[in-house]
From TrEMBL:
Residues 31-369 form the UDP-N-acetylglucosamine 2-epimerase domain. NCBIfam families: wecB (TIGR00236). It comes from the Bacteria. Gene3D superfamilies: Glycogen Phosphorylase B (3.40.50.2000). It is an enzyme of class 5 (isomerase). The gene is wecB. Its EC number is 5.1.3.14. Keywords: Isomerase. GO terms for molecular function: UDP-N-acetylglucosamine 2-epimerase activity. The lineage of its organism: Bacteria, Bacillati, Bacillota, Clostridia, Eubacteriales. This is UDP-N-acetylglucosamine 2-epimerase (non-hydrolyzing). Pfam families: Epimerase_2. Belongs to the UDP-N-acetylglucosamine 2-epimerase family. The keyword Isomerase applies.
Amino acid sequence: MPQKIKVLSIFGTRPEAIKMAPVVKELEKYPENFISKVAVTAQHREMLDQVLQLFQITPDHDLNIMAPEQTLYDITAKALLGLKPIFEQERPDLVLVHGDTTTTFIASLGAYYQQIPVGHVEAGLRTHNKYSPYPEEMNRKLTGSIADIHFSPTATSRENLIDEGIDPESIYVTGNTVIDALLTTVRHDYSFHNDSLNKVNFAEKEILLVTTHRRENLGEPMRQVYKALRQVLEQRSQASIIFPVHKNPAVRRVVEEELGQHPRVQLIEPMDYEPFVNLMNKANIILTDSGGMQEEAPSLGKPVLVLRDTTERPEAVRAGTVKLVGTSAETIARETLELLTNPEAYKNMANAVNPYGDGKASQRIAQAILYHFRKSDQLPEEYA
């Protein structure tokens, strides 16, 4: 048994960094128990660096694999080959990965090839449709098959793993670390660097915050989303839209065609994590095809309309904090207008209890690692 547990946390995208940063910072609090190392693939580069800077994390290893127009094949091959010497140099006791990215799956696979145990943060999320979301659904299923310790955010995700034959004793229900990150970042007196955002009258306007980026929504599905938004603006003169537009040219082209000339649509560049979550806190309604925002926005009391036909986060649907609306223009417009015109419907979603966390997930993960390696006989308290 190691005197100190060497944990190598590996991530590559902004969402992973946001959710892993609280875990890394928690491990750093206990140098008597942990040697904490960080490796990044930089599957995303600029967006990843913003989060590293915000949380003051300096990676011990940086593969810097991002390239223009990279494909899943490129990411997979470069990450797998790049991580091999890092595993050989560090020989960690545990490799910690998060969620469902290609980096996550490949880091797990590479660790398995070296017979290094894997801990999976945000384990057990499922849609049971391997192409929705793509490729995330298979990334997390394959990672789940490799992992030795599973940190599930909810009881539902634990049950998904048990249904797949995972040993229940290897699963810890921790809550989601994204809430840990969120609660340390949102400030009610926040001021934006973007002057146009500071001039928005959030108190008296109906502000819709929109994001779209999913591969399966590219093309006509996204066009339908934007047509629905135009319909909403036509019927609600006090409504306006703030839309941080993804850098993917396939997204930008359709956004510009459908919404670019509207006077009450503010198209802005993708935002750093800190200003973005503070913008979420000021908006009235969130429309998104993102996964993480389904967890974050409810903690801020914001109704979320999910621009997808499936979600790996059914707890939020059951709790009433989010609603699946797909990509039908008619449905999106109807559901958005319902929230804007029916105060009771809005209140029911805004006041629903967020099922995803209480800000202590990272503490539970650190405790679970100590328990797993028999450095503690205290089983972490389960998040309920």
